[in-house]
Amino acid sequence: MKKSLIVAGLLLTIDTFSYAQSLRYKLTQLDLIDHANFETRLGYIAHNYSQDPDTKAFGTAGHFHLTTVQWNGLQADLGIYGATKLGKNEDPDFFGNKSSFVFFSEATLGYRYQDFSIEGGRFIFDSPHADSDDIRMVPNFFQGVKAAYSQNDTTLQVGYLTKMAGWESGGRIDKFKKFHRVAQSDKSIDGVFFAGFDFDSLSLWLYHIDNSANVMYIEKYFSVVGLDLRLQGDFAKDCEEAALGEIDAKTLGILVEKSYENLNFSFAYNKNYGNSGAMMSFGGGPFFTSMEDLTIDALNGSDQEAYTYGISYGKDNFSLGIMQGRFYGENFHSDEIDLYAAYSYKDISFEAVYASIDDHYNQDYSIVRFFAKYEF
Question: Which long-range contacts (CB under 8 A, 24 or more apart) does 181-186 make?
Answer without folding.
Answer: 182/282, 183/243, 183/244, 183/280, 183/282, 185/212, 185/243, 185/244
